[in-house]
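Dear support,

I submitted the protein below through the web form. The confirmation email said the job was done, but the results page showed an empty box. After a refresh the structure appeared. I'm attaching both so you can tell me whether what I see now is the final result or a partial one.
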Amino acid sequence: MVSRSVPIVNALGLHARAAAQLVRLAAGFACTITIVREDLGIEANAKSILSVLHLAAPLGTEITLIADGADEEEAVSAIEALFRKGFGEL
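What the results page shows now:
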């Protein structure tokens, strides 16, 4: 299992378009990927758009990525990069 924390840096936070990008990326990996919104203690399946949108995470929210499976390291690194690039909105 791999775990890494990352802040949301784009102004609109984890909105619908950003969530869709995240889900598309996560779906390409075999491992399970969970996103945890630390301030509220809620979790989301990164491969489910409704689950991700339920996080309602705005700018500045600290997110923890947790992956478990064969390609866990690659998955966390790719998703972390997507968050750090602000989903292409910076």
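Response: this is the final, complete result; the empty box was a page-load delay. The beta strands are 2-7, 32-37, 42-45, 62-68.
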